[in-house]
Structure formats: structure tokens, C-alpha cells
Design goal:
By secondary structure, this protein is an alpha+beta fold. It has one domain (about 5-270). The chain contains 9 helices and 11 strands. It has helices at about 20-25, 45, 55-65, 85-95, 140-145, 165-175, 190-205, 225-240, 245-250, and strands at about 30, 80, 100-110, 115-125, 130-135, 160-165, 180-185, 185-190, 215, 260-265, 270. The strands form 3 sheets. Strands 3, 4, 5, 6, 7 and 8 form a 6-stranded mixed β-sheet that branches. It has a 3-stranded antiparallel β-sheet with strand order 9-10-11, with no helix packed on it. A hairpin with a 4-residue loop joins β4 (about 115-125) and β5. It is globular, with a radius of gyration of 18 Å.
């Protein structure tokens, strides 16, 4: 999903710095649900780009709307409609193109609504100097930092402010968190956390699906959750380092494997996964 493909050359001249690349992404995309705060009213046609899965297609849409170099920020009304997953995946693609080790993580943010763990995606990039993985929220430009009262550095998001899906699952299972606080809009619960565990493990293997793509063991019924199986998946999400073989084995299981066709829950229809 993160491969720029035929659009790769457009990434060549970008600044290689992690923060600078986050700024480039912010000048290209606008979150469909935050757009009104920028004074932008998106049309239904403009919103269609939130269903793009591949970075190559995202870049094609961005350049079709405005062929200027990517480091030239578009005005808010000229940016391509997206959600957090698109900000993250485009950032990951740019980082990898410039030699960084980076991946997309699916989980929950505590900084959009008080007392809530909101469905969200961020970048995780390997900090070679400090020898650790760092969370980066490429969506949080200066406007959103003011809008949501962000006091931390978006280039080093604390792990209690963004909780990867596996950690969220473990907290709920151990009684340290209320599953009803995890979700988005009117959707919340342990089933939602479970779906994000599957999405996060898939993302670790390069299958960064849309937040509303549904497949395998995903269900909206807590009673249908295979708790021991999801406990094992959550362990991979919690601590993925050195466990590539285990992640690959997990994604060979039809309960987590991304099939050729997934269900787009927003469009209420089956669609090709790639």
C-alpha cells in the first residue's frame, strides 16, 4: 500500500527530515471531518478520495488536482480529502523513500475528545540516534494543535496519548480500561478494539487497509470474538520486534489474512483490497 509506484519520482526532491516530511503531507491533505474548521466544505465528489488505499493512487489524485511540486503546500480548499490513515501512509511512503525505517500503526488517540480513545493512525519511525521507535502524528499541523489543545510534540507522541491497538486490547482485557471508551462516532466497544488489533497486525506486514475495511474475524458482536486468538494477536501488536515470522503466520490464518476482496463498511459494499 505504501509503495509510490509510478509516482516515486515526485518524492525525490522532498526534504528528508521526519518533521519536514510531516509538514509536506499536511500541505497536501485535509481530513474530511476536520475540514470545516479550516473553512472548507467538501463536496461528495471530493470525499471520494478517502477511499483510496494505495499511496500511488493518492499521489496521482493529489497531482491531478494540482501539478505543482509536492513540497508546495496547497491552500486548504485545494487539498485532497483524507483521513488519519492517509496522512500516516503518505508520511510512511515519503520516509521510506528517503531512507528512514517507518511503518503505520493503528490504534487510539486520547487527544481528540476528553475521556475517549478515538480510532486513529500514526507513523512509527525508527530513531537511529536514540535506538527506539518514535510515534509521529503527521496529521497535527499548527491549526489542529490549537484546535485540539495539543501540548505534546507531534513528532514524539507519548505512548499514553496514542495507544497501539494491541495495548488497548490488553488494557481492556485486564480491566485497566473501559472498552466503551474506544471507538469513533457512535461505534465503540471491545469488538471495535478487536478489529483494530487485526488492522494493526496487518499493517505491520504492509497491508495498511482503510479504517472501515472489514474482513476475517472482524465482527460488531462481542459474543462472537475469539478472545484467546485475539489475545495472541494483541501480543504481536504490543511487541512486534523480531517477530516477523509470527506476524506472517498470523496473517496466513483466514481470521486475519487480508483477502482479495474486503467489505467497505462506509460504502456498504465489497471492494478489491488492492
Amino acid at each position: 500500500m505504501a509503495a509510490p509506484g509510478a509516482q516515486a519520482a515526485a518524492l525525490d526532491g522532498l526534504p528528508p527530515d521526519v518533521g519536514a516530511l510531516a509538514g509536506v503531507v499536511q500541505g497536501l491533505l485535509i481530513h474530511e471531518h476536520v475540514a470545516p474548521s479550516y473553512g472548507v466544505a467538501l463536496s461528495d465528489a471530493q470525499r471520494e478520495t478517502v477511499h483510496l488505499r494505495r499511496v500511488e493512487d493518492m499521489l496521482a489524485a493529489i497531482r491531478s488536482a494540482a501539478p505543482a511540486p509536492l513540497d508546495r503546500a496547497r491552500p486548504p480548499a485545494g487539498r485532497t480529502a483524507a483521513v488519519c490513515r492517509h496522512f500516516t501512509l503518505l508520511h510512511v511512503a515519503m520516509l521510506r523513500h528517503h531512507g528512514h525505517v517507518a511503518r503505520a500503526r493503528c490504534g487510539f488517540a486520547t487527544y481528540f475528545a476528553p475521556g475517549k480513545f478515538v480510532d486513529h493512525w500514526v507513523t512509527e519511525v525508527r530513531d537511529t540516534e536514540r535506538q527506539r521507535w518514535t510515534l509521529v502524528d503527521a496529521q497535527l499541523d499548527d491549526h489542529q494543535r490549537r484546535l485540539f489543545g495539543i501540548a505534546f510534540d507531534p513528532l514524539d507522541v507519548p505512548r499514553d496519548r496514542f495507544v497501539v491497538a494491541g495495548d488497548a486490547w490488553q488494557a481492556c482485557r485486564e480491566g485497566r480500561a473501559d472498552p466503551a471508551a474506544f471507538g469513533i462516532h457512535t461505534m465503540a466497544g471491545l469488538w471495535f478494539v478487536a478489529s483494530n488489533v487485526i488492522r494493526d497486525v496487518a499493517a505491520l506486514a504492509g497491508h495498511e487497509m482503510l479504517p472501515w475495511d472489514v474482513w476475517g474475524a472482524m465482527t460488531a458482536d462481542d459474543a462472537q470474538l475469539d478472545l484467546p486468538y485475539l489475545d495472541r494477536l494483541a501480543g504481536l501488536s504490543h511487541a512486534p520486534e523480531g517477530r516477523d515470522a509470527a506476524i506472517a503466520a498470523a496473517l496466513a490464518d483466514p481470521r486475519a489474512a487480508v483477502p482479495g476482496t474486503v467489505f467497505n463498511a462506509v460504502r456498504n459494499r465489497a471492494e478489491p483490497a488492492t
